Amino acid sequence: MKKLIRNYHFFVLGLIGLVLNSCNTRKFKIWVGTNNEQKIYNLKYGEHKRQKMDVFLPSDYPQDSPVVLIVHGGAWKYGRKEHMIQIQKMLFKNQIPSININYRLVSKHLTYKEQLEDINSAIEKFNSLSEKSELLPNNYILLGESAGGHLALLYGYQNPDKIKKIISLSGPTDFYSQEYLNSFYSKYTSGTVQKMVGAKFHRKNLSEDFQKASPIANVTNVPTLLFQGNQDFLVNQKQGLALDSVLTKMNIPHKLVFMDKTGHAPRFFNKKKRDSIIYPNILEWIKN
């Protein structure tokens, strides 16, 4: 087992050097616990004010331990990393290193593509620090919720050289298939989806941009854990079921945790399911 304390001074000095190059250092904080574990808050990985991440490093972990990179939800245009802090604390308690990121939000000039770029930038930034933290570069598990689940799936499938596993909680998967286009679900999500994709949603003449933005059309051999509620009105249950079917046909290691009488992002609203179903499945997927 490796201990970060061996390189603690070099790691912290490196972080401080990065921060001193920033024009805004007010919220940057480092906490060191009694067992030399560390929590680094608001480390910059880019110049935009949203490009910050929290890095939690437990006191003891093997060098080949994967780093879980957490991507928050919020319909691509809302949300922040603090909404995922309970998951990050749970991982920390179980000796799993993690990164929890903010990313640029969808606007008139920003789409999901820039959000994927932000995930990549966060990875490259931590890669530059991985040796000091005694971890391997490009050894990540992506964990995303809702819109963050979509981004985790899409980035993970497009970058199998960096991403070892994916975890998606209530993540949308399909914006182009005939089943989606014919569904009532597409009628009330198309406005949000077209802003995320950055192209007009023409139901009868859909741009290929919507296929490119769909994880289900970009699947590669990255093991995937899916959580889906059967009463999810924000991300219809068929989204998770459709990706599960594709992963099965392609013989890609995966698991679908399909929850009865469950709505969107259930860990927020159902402590029992969070502690007895969601967190245990996440830990098992990471460790096995």
TrEMBL record:
SUPFAM superfamilies: alpha/beta-Hydrolases. This is Alpha/beta hydrolase. Residues 53-246 form the BD-FAE-like domain. It comes from the Bacteria. It comes from Chryseobacterium luquanense. GO terms for molecular function: hydrolase activity. InterPro entries: AB_hydrolase_fold, BD-FAE-like_dom, GDXG_lipolytic_enzyme. Keywords: Hydrolase. Gene3D superfamilies: alpha/beta hydrolase.
